[in-house]
Structure formats: structure tokens, C-alpha cells
Design brief:
This protein is mostly beta strands. The chain is 12% helix and 44% strand.
């Protein structure tokens, strides 16, 4: 803007118009241009050209007062009167303020144009670093003030609301230590020559009090079954920004620079070694502060090992506990299931109780490690137990050799039925006792003898814990005659060819035998061997018998 001589003779009879406001605003802008030649930059915005109606708003004059005060404070700090405050429906600018403002503009204009013409203000040079961020709150402002021909009157450092008089050595050098605030710190040095001509030097110093922030977004401290792994994450710094970021790994990647996008995100693929891999990310901000984060990624291709410690041999006991040990040399055991049901581990051991079904019982054990590697093992335990197996119970058909005849050698009639003797029910080889009916009148003989015999081997059901069997032999004897008989009952293990229990008699009567069966024997081929016979003699009809009753079983 062109300088226009101020109007300095305002009085109560003169009235302000738009051209007066525009002249004052234009002159302030012109003074700012002179200011820029002598002092550090100062933000400035010229108010637009106004009309008569526009100048009625008092806030515009408030802006003018502020511009004038800033120009004076940052240059010579002259006594140009006190700034006034105007308000709507309150105090409005009058001729006294107008005269003060216009005279102040003229004073600043004359002082600046004279200084520019003479160029006598001191020269200020700042030698400390004013460009880079610092990580220290302690900052030494260093510089030099030299005379431009008329000597140095004083020098001050301004920082925030504080001012510090600088001590200059013989060469005009100074050092002043201050404590910075986080962020951008605005500072200025002002020096005057002996004629009072000032020189300002404004500068900034940036202090970063924070560390960079590193965020890892890829999986950390987890196990993988694949060696391909991409390290992803983000590094940020709210103050000085990120100067660099690097990655170092135990897989052979020495400290290597990461490429960051505009948001600070990075992605870096590596190949994992087996087991443990250490990854370190380091970030440095613009102030030189560093942050480091280290994490692990694990690679495991070896599946767990399952060892079954309980017996898987055939058993007669339906109560069964499946036991085993699961180990993993790398990532450790994560889970164990049996037939799809989770099983708890105690020091890598598992134990699960089951009730077996007759026949093969299949158990599928699946163990997984923390990387997800699975191991599957299938075992089968066979339950051999005929308790509920009707095809192997005592009433099944078996092969026997028996006879029923009379003393003439004729085969007698055998009735297939149960017989009760002395209150005990007997079933004789699926037949009634041998009974010979012979009529002496027909045969012409004075007596008849009935003979019954048995020679049977009967299989026992599997799964027995004990067995007890009773048998009897004898016949009907008339007056002067006696019944005879013999009977042997043996329980034998045909698998090992050993006798478990046996009892016998050589005359008419009963025989009993009982035995406890071990679990091992209960799996074997156990049989009852029955041999013997009975006889009876009478004058007319006679009968004889031999056989065993239904045994008593207990089961595993």
C-alpha cells in the first residue's frame, strides 16, 4: 500500500468516513511492509476496503488497535498512548483516538524509514540449532549480536511471558539456557544500538517429549504350522514424526529399514525358523528418541506323540479306564479328545473311565499342539462277556453222549423234561433222567434193572467271576435191592489245559463243585466235564438217573 499522510488534526467537528478508515488501514499495512525489512516476519492480514456503512461496526476499530499495538511492541515499543477498547452500543471511537492512532502511525513510519535509510540497527545471528527437533527439554540459545556502527545498548531473549537480558562477551557472543515446553517453542532476540534502533530476530525450537509408538498387528507369541510369516504394524509419533523404522529378526534379517505408508503402517514378510523366532522393531522420531518392541513368532511342524499306558487286551470287565501320555517337544500340547470329547491333562497324562460294551470298543484319541499339528491314534478294547449273550448261556444246546437201557440191553424211553429230586431242579443234558420201564410179566423175569449214564463236556460262558454246579446220580431200588451210581464234575480251562475245580462220588447221591474265576481265566475256553451213571433194580418197573442242575453264575 502507498503511504498517505495521516490526518492528525481531528476535532469534535470532524466526522469519520470510509476513506479515513481505509487510509489508516492502508498506512498500517505500509508500516508492516517496513517492519518486514527490519524485523522477523509477523502474521498480517489487511482489512478489505470499507464503505461508509461498514465503518459503523466497532469491532473493526478493535482490529485496527490490535494491529497498531503488535507493530509497536515487536519493533520499538514506543510510548504511543494506550490502546482503547470499543464495544457495540458502548464506547465508539472519537476524534481523540483517531488523532492518537494517526500520530502513532506517523511516528512508526518515520522511525522505520529512517532506520532503513541509515541501516544502523544491530545484526543478530543465532548459532544454536533452530531447525531440528530436540529430545531434551534443556536448550542453550547461542548467538552473536554485532554493532552496525553505533554500538550495542542491550540484548534480550524473549520466551513466552519471560524476558532474559543477555550477557554479551567482547565479541558480542551470548549463551542462555532455557527449559523448553513440548512442541514448538517461539523465541526472539531483540537488541538495540546506542541510538535506540532495535533489531528483532524470531525463531522456533521444537521439543519432542514423547517416544514413538509401535503397534504390532500381526500375531504375536503364537505358534504356526507354516514358515511364511508377515510382520505387520504401525509406528507413529504425535510431535516430531517418525524419522525411521527398522526390523531385526533371529531368522537372519539384520537391521533393515521398514517402508512406511503415510499413516505409518508397514508390512515385512519373513521366513520363520523352526521353534522360536525373535523379531525386534525399532522406531526413531524426528527428535532422535527411540522406541523398541520385541516379540516372538513360533513355527512348529512336529505333531504330538500319544502313548497308551493302559492295557488294550481283551477283557471280561466292562469297567475300563483308558490312560495315556501326550507329549510335544516344541509348542506343547494344547488339547486331547477321545471320540470327540475333550479330556483333561495332568502333567501330560490323561485318564478316562468307560463302561465297555460286549465286543470291540474303539477309542480314537486326537492330540493337538499349540501350533495346531494333530496326531490321531485309534485303539480297540474287546469286552468278552456272555452275561447277556443268549447264544452262550447254560441253556444252549450242546453235544452229549448218554444211554438209558434196561438189564436186557433194551433202550428205554427218555422223557425230555425237568426233574425235581429232593427239592432241587435238574436238567439232564437236555433230557430227562434215563428211566427204564420193564414189565416182568411180559419178560418173564423176576426183576428189572435200569441204567443211566452220561459223558458230556459243556462249555461255560465267558465273563464269569465264579461258578457253582451240583449233580446227582442214583436209581429206584426195590426191597432187597440197592441203588447205585457214580458222578464226577470237573471245571477245566481248556486254553491252559488246567483243572480249576473238581469233585466226584462213587455211589448214589449228590456232588457239588464251585470255583472262583480270574479275569484271565474268564477269557479262556472253560468247560464243565460230567461223567457218571446211575442204576436201580426192582421186581417190576425200575428207573435210574444221572445229571446236573442249572449252575449258579456270578459275572465280571
Amino acid at each position: 500500500m502507498t503511504w498517505i499522510n495521516p490526518k492528525t488534526d481531528w476535532n469534535s467537528e470532524t466526522y469519520i468516513n470510509a476513506s479515513d478508515f481505509n487510509r489508516i488501514e492502508g498506512n498500517l499495512t505500509h508500516i508492516h511492509g517496513l517492519f518486514e525489512q527490519l524485523f522477523p516476519s509477523m502474521a498480517w492480514s489487511q482489512y478489505p476496503t470499507q464503505t461508509t456503512d461498514d465503518i459503523a461496526y466497532t469491532y473493526k476499530w478493535v482490529i485496527v488497535e490490535g494491529q497498531l499495538e503488535n507493530l509497536n511492541k515487536k519493533s520499538y515499543d514506543l510510548n504511543i498512548g494506550n490502546r482503547k477498547t470499543f464495544s457495540e452500543n458502548g464506547h465508539y471511537i472519537d476524534y481523540n483516538e483517531l488523532n492518537r492512532i494517526e500520530n502513532a502511525c506517523l511516528t512508526l513510519y518515520n522511525r522505520m524509514t529512517a532506520q532503513i535509510a541509515n541501516n544502523t540497527a544491530p545484526v543478530i545471528t543465532i548459532t544454536s540449532n533452530t531447525i531440528d527437533w530436540t529430545s531434551s527439554a534443556t536448550y542453550d540459545v547461542t548467538g552473536k549480536v554485532t554493532s552496525n556502527g553505533n554500538g550495542i545498548s542491550d540484548a534480550y531473549l524473549y520466551y513466552g511471558d519471560n524476558s532474559y537480558r543477555l550477557t554479551l562477551n567482547s565479541s558480542g557472543e551470548f549463551t542462555k539456557r532455557i527449559t523448553l515446553q513440548p512442541g514448538i517453542n517461539n523465541l526472539s532476540v531483540r537488541s538495540r544500538d546506542l541510538d535506540g534502533n532495535p533489531r528483532f530476530y524470531e525463531f522456533t525450537k521444537k521439543y519432542d517429549s514423547t517416544l514413538p509408538v509401535i503397534t504390532i498387528t500381526s500375531a504375536q507369541s503364537t505358534w504356526s504350522t507354516t514358515s511364511a510369516y508377515t510382520v505387520t504394524g504401525k509406528v507413529t509419533d504425535a510431535e516430531s514424526g517418525i524419522a525411521s523404522a527398522t526390523i531385526t529378526t533371529s531368522t537372519g534379517v539384520s537391521e533393515t529399514a521398514l517402508t512406511l505408508n503415510s499413516s505409518g503402517n508397514f508390512s515385512y514378510p519373513i521366513t520363520l525358523n523352526n521353534t522360536d523366532n525373535t523379531i525386534t522393531i525399532k522406531a526413531t522420531n524426528g527428535a532422535g528418541r527411540q522406541s523398541t518392541t520385541t516379540f516372538h513368532a513360533y513355527y512348529d511342524t512336529i505333531a504330538p506323540t500319544i502313548s497308551i499306558t493302559s492295557s488294550t487286551a481283551a477283557t471280561v470287565n466292562p469297567t475300563y479306564t483308558l490312560q495315556g501320555v501326550v507329549t510335544d517337544s516344541q509348542s506343547g500340547v494344547a488339547s486331547v479328545t477321545i471320540n470327540g470329547v475333550s479330556v483333561a491333562l495332568s502333567n501330560n497324562n490323561f485318564s478316562k473311565a468307560y463302561t465297555l460294551s460286549v465286543g470291540a470298543n474303539t477309542f480314537t484319541i486326537v492330540a493337538k499342539d499349540n501350533a495346531g499339528n494333530p496326531t490321531t491314534q485309534t485303539v480297540s478294547v474287546t469286552l468278552v462277556n456272555d452275561k447277556n449273550n443268549t447264544s452262550r448261556n447254560w441253556t444252549s444246546t450242546y453235544t452229549t453222549t448218554d444211554t438209558a437201557r434196561n438189564n436186557r440191553g433194551e433202550t428205554a424211553t427218555a422223557n425230555d423234561s425237568w426233574v425235581t429230586i429232593d427239592g432241587v431242579g435238574y436238567k439232564y443234558n437236555d433230557r430227562a433222567p434215563a428211566k427204564s420201564n420193564y414189565n416182568s410179566d411180559t419178560g418173564g423175569y423176576g426183576f428189572v434193572t435200569a441204567i443211566a449214564s452220561i459223558d458230556s463236556t459243556i462249555p461255560l460262558p465267558r465273563g464269569l467271576s465264579s461258578v457253582a454246579i451240583s449233580g446227582t446220580c442214583g436209581g429206584e431200588a426195590g426191597t432187597g435191592y440197592s441203588a447205585g451210581g457214580n458222578l464226577s464234575i470237573t471245571i477245566k480251562d481248556f486254553t491252559t489245559n488246567t483243572i480249576i475245580a473238581s469233585n466226584s462220588r462213587n455211589n448214589a447221591g449228590s456232588v457239588s463243585v464251585s470255583a472262583g474265576i480270574t479275569q484271565e481265566q474268564a477269557l479262556h475256553d472253560l468247560r464243565v466235564i460230567i461223567t457218571g451213571g446211575g442204576s436201580g433194580t426192582q421186581h417190576t418197573n425200575s428207573s435210574a438217573w444221572v445229571g446236573i442242575g442249572i449252575p449258579t453264575f456270578t459275572w465280571y
